[in-house]
Write a structure and sequence with these properties.
2 copies of one chain form a homodimer. The first copy, chain A, contains 10 helices and 13 strands. Chain A has 307 residues and is α/β, with parallel strands linked by helices.
């Protein structure tokens, strides 16, 4: 009897795997290291082997959902730099191991957003945007319950929207992307340059500076950190404004390490968002993600359950 | 035999009506004045009467598609200020005249975008954004062939995205929305203030200034107009950048009066868009709308045909 759904979140360091009931209850989860040798050629076979090793019977599996770190169009990823993958047809490759299976693939940021929508902060919603603040900035947009992929799988690339014209150069080649000022390294850079420019003292130890320590220092009243966090909130509030008018989500969910800094940063982002007055989107809810690192496996499972 | 589709574009001044074959060929079109008396209570009955008067047999109609100037969620408009309508269930009201009919309703900007997608500049595409430059700025976003409505029907409100922080106050209550610098009146305002600030002469007659005359003057080398149009192109290029990363359309289509100014403005917008380098969206096509004022009836018909 087919009664299990497998959610697989393929990351650059680990692959997270979850076994779910057909109604979406997580029954078992584990992770395996991502084998990036031979341009990631062994990743999919190792996922299948791991499932078998854990006692998952392929005959009981309704389907396999995958979240992968790259653009996806029609279940094919156009490339995942962090895995060594070029254009990769996961459905075709994984389908050779798990024959006659239902396989659905989406981008990891979309999948995390779907996870929060179906099982996390956004239960009951159908229009949601998730912004993940980490080493980079990920974005996933859901409208009418489905992730927006776009023509080239690049929908929801919120981290590369310019929010500071003439700002610092981003890896993408443009100056002043959201990622240059609001990613973990962007926040540290803003802190160091602001401290230097304003010649201020700070309680933050420069040898051990992180986005989290800066948020904590701002909460304690450290002047440089407060300036940096207020500016961060301005940029993130502006990003919320932009997405609220683009696809008009009912809820914007912040995930990732920086967003774990409690309500302090979130409250500041909400204040900034309120500076924009277009009435129809004033009630857009801004909140924190709930599923943490499990958002990916939940969302990957939901790809199958809601397909 | 049911073999006709009716596309209805309800505007503040006129209602445009088109009769289409079931494959989307326009067979007949006309317009009637929008009767705004009694808070627009007669608009829908007058549309039905006009159809009967023109010899349309309701028994031959597969369905009626409506584009209306306000937010729409689940076929219900939350209000159309220009028509005098509050929350209005068109399906219910019009369904009393045209019994047992298929009725589909969407926002007018979405419907125009669907028209261009199905029968105009975007034939063959499934991801498209349309930006209409007129008295205001309308936006319609299509992903995977469907218009994005959002939680409160406010998706695609591109005209209210802030592009100039601290800029002029918009009707929506926010400063520096795209509409304040790139709508017809916004362009005139930018022209007059720039001329005043820089104390420059211009070939544009201030008593007869319009967005179109400013574009024409810029093409002839008028300095103030050139400055204004370059800045306009910067703002519109930035808007294209934002939507290209939000929903990643294959094509962005400009419609409305200002966009009829030939390739001159469009080329400048394209140049500005190229300043943003995120590779996956570099090939987003930017082009002019093709259907002019008929985009609405075509799109309204496509709501029925593609439903």
């Amino acid at each position: 009897m087919k009664n299990k759904v497998v959610g697989i979140d393929v990351g650059g360091t680990t692959v997270k795997i979850g076994i779910f009931s057909d109604s979406g209850t997580l029954q078992q989860k584990w992770e395996i290291p991502t084998n990036k040798s031979d341009n990631g050629a062994h990743i999919l076979s190792e996922i299948y082997q791991s499932l078998i090793h854990k006692g998952v019977n392929p005959l009981h599996v309704i389907g396999y959902g995958f979240g992968v770190p790259g653009p996806v169009v029609n279940n094919i990823t156009l490339g995942c730099v962090n895995l060594g993958w070029g254009i990769t047809d996961i459905k075709d490759i994984f389908g050779k191991y798990a024959e006659h299976s239902h396989i659905v693939v989406d981008n990891d940021a979309n999948v995390a957003a779907l996870g929060e929508l179906s099982y996390g902060a956004g239960i009951g919603k159908s229009d949601l945007v998730m912004i993940t603040l980490g080493t980079g900035i990920g974005g996933g947009i859901i409208t009418a319950g489905k992730s927006v992929k776009g023509a080239f799988g690049a929908a929801g690339e919120i981290g590369h929207i310019v929010v500071k014209h003439g700002g610092r150069l981003c890896n993408c080649g443009t100056n002043g992307c959201l990622e240059t000022v609001a990613s973990a390294s962007g926040i540290i850079h803003e802190f160091l340059t602001t401290k230097e420019e304003l010649q201020l003292q700070s309680i933050v130890n420069e040898n051990n500076v992180s986005a989290r320590t800066i948020v904590d220092a701002a909460r304690q009243g450290d002047s440089v950190s407060m300036i940096v966090i207020d500016r961060l909130a301005f940029y993130l509030g502006y990003a919320c404004h932009i997405v609220s008018l683009a696809t008009n989500p009912e809820m914007i969910v912040f995930g990732g390490g920086v967003s774990n800094a409690g309500e302090f940063l979130l409250d500041k982002i909400k204040q900034q968002f309120k500076q924009y007055h277009f009435s129809a989107v004033q009630n857009t809810e801004i909140t924190k993600a709930m599923l943490g690192n499990d958002a990916g496996i939940y969302g990957a499972a939901s790809l199958v359950i809601n397909d």
